[in-house]
Structure formats: structure tokens, C-alpha cells
């Protein structure tokens, strides 16, 4: 059992990680919480019967009972807090983006390695059971070689005074780094490494100083292509958070698996073998089909589990059994390098190799 302290308890930690992840995990104990919003932190501590509630980062980090920390603070604070935690011998799970830029990621990796603590980046959508099932079936060749994909994660995020995600100095960017990063990392999981990128960003609805709209094209080592759209100006009811992945023998399509929930719907169409050219292009023909739907589970379907629970259990298991996290510091660095290239592409109008 790993004792976890939460730094930044009143944001995503309060909404998701604490109720769905830490308190539901089999190998983790919520030991301490910290937030500058002291009354909010006290409320969380009371709800979950946590005896230790702090208002200063150093107080939690110096707590000898805490073995690991979960950082859910604005991005510009990730590096300095992670360094303090590592030097105090605490293992670090840091929300994405790992840091403000690749150089900060490298410093974080170096400090954690020097102090022999685990470092993991919170790209939790890799832990969604439907995404893991997709990877299993794609790797097994069910739909043939992947050739084209699209991923979408959008929401409605209007101008909010003081919102750190709307301030480049505090968050590093807008919808692309906040939401597009999840899509891009998921496509890397399903399709392999990315070698070249191109991007457009815009302020299509709002006037804050980061982009509220982004569209991306990715080239993979396999020469497959993918498109990602991430927006802060699409109403929540309009965004189905679609994932489409096409192979030479079929396709995987999902709705609502990209997001913070455990469920969604997946439709997989496939043929036993690739066919010859059909001039009639009968698109209604479906040779074989698999459907996973969290609202209508069938015997043998993957059972939806909060990806936050699976994420935190994996982190604790890596600590207990001295294993490298699935989304290590190196993985966090790699996705940050890709994001930096995308922003350079959007700024210069050029394709960028990564």
C-alpha cells in the first residue's frame, strides 16, 4: 500500500482523481491533501477522512508518512514542485503536460533519476479499457495495417477571469496542449511513433491569449497519417469526442471513449482479408462487426473501469515492484517535444520533423 499526498487538491483531483482513482484503488491510501484554497482542502479531507491537510507545498512534501505525490497544479508549477518532491524522496505522478517545455521535462527526469524516485506523466487515457482493447485488436492485425486516423477532444471553455489554462505563461498553451495532447498520445499508443507534424491554431470564439481552436496533421513512422482536432469553442452537447482508425482490412470507431469517463461505444468492422477493387463501392456492406457499448454490456465485453483508478494503481505498482511506468518521464518528454513542434508549425506555417 502506497501513501499518496495530493498537491492541488481542489481542481481535477477533487473532481476525478480522488473520488474515482485514489480512494477506489486497491494499493493506494490517500494520506494528505494540500491546496492554497485551505477551506476547500479541509472539505476534501473531511469527506475522505484524511487527517493531514496542508496549505503549503513544503508541509506535505516534508511529511514522512507520504511516499508519493500527485501533482494537480498549474503547469508552470510542475517543475519546481517535482524537484522538491524528488529531493525529499517522494515518487512523482504529474498531470499532463509534464512541464512547460522539453527542457523542463529533461530537468525533471534528471532530478527524479538522481534521487531514485519514480516519475510518471498523467496521460490517463491510455488506461481506458476500451482503448486498451483497441490496441490489443489492432496489434493482433484484426483491421490490418493502420493507414489513417482521426481523434477529437473538444469542450466549451469560455473566458473565465483568472483561469490559468487561458494564460500561456501559466499553462503553456490552449486547447492543443490541454486537450489535443491526449488525442496525440492515444494515437501514438495505437499507431506507433510520429515523425512529422503540421498544425493550425486560432482564436475562433474567444479573446484569451491562448488558442481556443486547433487542427493537426500527423505522419507516423509507418507512413500512416492522422488528424486531430481540439477545441475550447465546441459546445459539450455537440462534441462526441470521436476516434476513427482505418486499417487495410477494417476500421475502429468510437464515441465518448476520449474523455474523463470510463465508458463509451466502440464499433469495429473488419474483413478476413483485404479485397480487390470494387467499382460499385458498396459502403453498406459489413463483413464482420464487433460492438462494445458501456450502456449495453454483453458477456465477454471489457468491463468499464475508471481510467483514473487504473492509472493510480499502475503508478503504485511501479513503486512497489520497482518497474518503469508505462507513461514514464521519457514518454512525457516525447509528447512534449511533439507539442513544441506543433506550436512551431502553427507559428511558422511549416511542416516540422520530430
Describe the 3D structure.
The chain has helices at residues 12-22, 38-47, 57-61, 78-87, 102-114, 129-139, 168-171, 175-191, 307-320, 329-348; strands at residues 2-7, 28-34, 52-54, 68-71, 91-95, 119-122, 146-154, 194-202, 213-220, 225-231, 243-247, 250-255, 265-270, 288-293, 352-353. With 354 residues, the protein is an alpha/beta fold. The protein has 2 domains: 2-125 and 308-339, NAD(P)-binding Rossmann-like Domain (Rossmann fold, 3-Layer(aba) Sandwich); 128-302, 2-Layer Sandwich (Dihydrodipicolinate Reductase, domain 2). Strands 14-13-12-11-7-10-9-8-15 form a 9-stranded mixed beta sheet. A 6-stranded parallel beta sheet has the order 3-2-1-4-5-6, with helices on both faces. Strand 1 (2-7), helix 1 (12-22) and strand 2 (28-34) form a beta-alpha-beta unit. The model has no long low-confidence stretch (mean pLDDT 95).
Secondary structure: elements and pairs:
Elements: E1 2-7, H1 12-22, E2 28-34, H2 38-47, E3 52-54, H3 57-61, E4 68-71, H4 78-87, E5 91-95, H5 102-114, E6 119-122, H6 129-139, E7 146-154, H7 168-171, H8 175-191, E8 194-202, E9 213-220, E10 225-231, E11 243-247, E12 250-255, E13 265-270, E14 288-293, H9 307-320, H10 329-348, E15 352-353
Parallel strand pairs: 1-2, 1-4, 2-3, 4-5, 5-6, 7-10
Antiparallel strand pairs: 7-11, 8-9, 8-15, 9-10, 11-12, 12-13, 13-14
Helix pairs in contact: 1-9, 4-5, 5-10
Amino acid at each position: 500500500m502506497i501513501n499518496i499526498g495530493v498537491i492541488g487538491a481542489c481542481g481535477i483531483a477533487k473532481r476525478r482523481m480522488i473520488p474515482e482513482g485514489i480512494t477506489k484503488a486497491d494499493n493506494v491510501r490517500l494520506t494528505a491533501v494540500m491546496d492554497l484554497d485551505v477551506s476547500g482542502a479541509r472539505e476534501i479531507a473531511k469527506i475522505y477522512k484524511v487527517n493531514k491537510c496542508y496549505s503549503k507545498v513544503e508541509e506535505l512534501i516534508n511529511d514522512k508518512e507520504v511516499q508519493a505525490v500527485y501533482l494537480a497544479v498549474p503547469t508552470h508549477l510542475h517543475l519546481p514542485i517535482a524537484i522538491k518532491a524528488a529531493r525529499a524522496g517522494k515518487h512523482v505522478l504529474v498531470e499532463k503536460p509534464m512541464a512547460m517545455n522539453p527542457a523542463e521535462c529533461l530537468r525533471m527526469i534528471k532530478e527524479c533519476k538522481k534521487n531514485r524516485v519514480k516519475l510518471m506523466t498523467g496521460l490517463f487515457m491510455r488506461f481506458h479499457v476500451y482503448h486498451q482493447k483497441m490496441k490489443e485488436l489492432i496489434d493482433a492485425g484484426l483491421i490490418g495495417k493502420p493507414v489513417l486516423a482521426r481523434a477529437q477532444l473538444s469542450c466549451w471553455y469560455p473566458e473565465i477571469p483568472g483561469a490559468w489554462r487561458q494564460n500561456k505563461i501559466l499553462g503553456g498553451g490552449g486547447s492543443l496542449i490541454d486537450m489535443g495532447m491526449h488525442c496525440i498520445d492515444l494515437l501514438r499508443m495505437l499507431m506507433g511513433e510520429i515523425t512529422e507534424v503540421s498544425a493550425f491554431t486560432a482564436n475562433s470564439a474567444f479573446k484569451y491569449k491562448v488558442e481556443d481552436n486547433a487542427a493537426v496533421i500527423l505522419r507516423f513512422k509507418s507512413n500512416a497519417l492522422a488528424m486531430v482536432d481540439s477545441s475550447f469553442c465546441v459546445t459539450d452537447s455537440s462534441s462526441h469526442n470521436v476516434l476513427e482508425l482505418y486499417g487495410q482490412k477494417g476500421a475502429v470507431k468510437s464515441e465518448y471513449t476520449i474523455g474523463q469517463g470510463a465508458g463509451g461505444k466502440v464499433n469495429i468492422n473488419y474483413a478476413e482479408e483485404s479485397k480487390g477493387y470494387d467499382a460499385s463501392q458498396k459502403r453498406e456492406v459489413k463483413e464482420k462487426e464487433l460492438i462494445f457499448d458501456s450502456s449495453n454490456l454483453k458477456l465477454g465485453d471489457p468491463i468499464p473501469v475508471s481510467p483514473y483508478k487504473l492509472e493510480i494503481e499502475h503508478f503504485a505498482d511501479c513503486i512497489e515492484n520497482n518497474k518503469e511506468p508505462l507513461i514514464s518521464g521519457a514518454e512525457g518528454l516525447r509528447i512534449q517535444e511533439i507539442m513544441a513542434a506543433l506550436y512551431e508549425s502553427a507559428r511558422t506555417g511549416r511542416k516540422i520533423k520530430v
